[in-house]
Specification:
With 88 residues, the protein is α/β, with parallel strands linked by helices. The protein is built from 3 helices and 4 strands; from the N terminus they run E-E-H-E-H-E-H. Strand 2, helix 1 and strand 3 form a beta-alpha-beta unit.
Length: 88
C-alpha cells in the first residue's frame, strides 16, 4: 500500500510517500506530475518508503533526471538508482 501526503512549501510542492511503491503505483505518481510545468519545484520525500520494485526505481530515476528532488532517499533505493534500476 502506498500513501501520499501533499504539502505546499515555499520551495515548491512536496509529496511525502510512505509504504510500498510498486509498478501499480507508478501511474498514480505520474498523474501527480501531469500539467506541472516547473518539475524542479517538486520533491518526493521517501523517508517512510519501505519497499520499492524495479519499475518504481526506474520511475524515480527518471524523475530525478527531470529535476525532481528525491528527499530522504533510502540508501538501498539510491544504490539501485545508481545501478540503473537492476539488481546485481
Amino acid at each position: 500500500m502506498l500513501r501520499i501526503r501533499k504539502s505546499e512549501e515555499s520551495a515548491g510542492t512536496n509529496f511525502a510517500l510512505s509504504g510500498q511503491i510498486g509498478e501499480e503505483h507508478v501511474a498514480e505518481l505520474k498523474t501527480l506530475l501531469e500539467g506541472v510545468e516547473q518539475v524542479s519545484r517538486i520533491a518526493f520525500d521517501l523517508q517512510e518508503v519501505r519497499l520499492v520494485d524495479r519499475e518504481a526505481v526506474r520511475f524515480l530515476a527518471h524523475c530525478e533526471t527531470r529535476g525532481i528532488k528525491l528527499k530522504n532517499c533510502p540508501s538501498y533505493v539510491r544504490e539501485w538508482i545508481e545501478r540503473g534500476g537492476t539488481k546485481s
